């Protein structure tokens, strides 16, 4: 008899689902829906992958994971993927493709192919790409996009700020302030979330620091994780197994005799 009642209850639930259909979760705890946003498999709008091809993804489980990680944005994609971040790194625009059911709850939508059901925590402000170069900041001036030797050689700038900057808090300004506070006159940002420093000797007028090798500026195109409107270096493929870093490099004005 108990099994029969369970079967009846399940059938009623399925009928209700068929009649009402799946829905987009608009609010959960302090999270609010900000729509269906486009995404890309080659450059994700949200940096951090929490779950992929999971049979248990729901909007609620994803947002709980993002909240636990301290992120202010969360998104579900392709029915079984969960992403988090503190900035919308790329502005792909609105999408109409959020039509896949959540793998863990068939009454909810969990994004779609290259489409995120995107959520914001408690109306916390966030930045949205595209990113552009910061050319000047206080005593610092942009020098160019530099090849990073690591891991094939020593780092171009081997030091860092005295107080390490978490990747999720990385901006150009925080990196440059940190390097200056540590007494360095050179700084570089890499991969959207890394900050490096060093002291370099002056060359002749306009001379490039020893060991610095310029590359195409378009190879420095990664948005900073805490400010998607700023460029924080980049990464480019080196082989099937490795990548090479690119540094958005800065020098203080005394290097240029312009202070």
From TrEMBL:
TM spans (from-to): none
Keyword entries, A-Z: Repeat, Signal
Superkingdom of the organism of origin: Eukaryota
Name of the protein in question: WSC domain-containing protein
Domain (WSC): residue spans on this chain: 30-122, 139-244
Source species: Mycena alexandri
Pfam families recorded: WSC
Leader sequence segment: 1-18
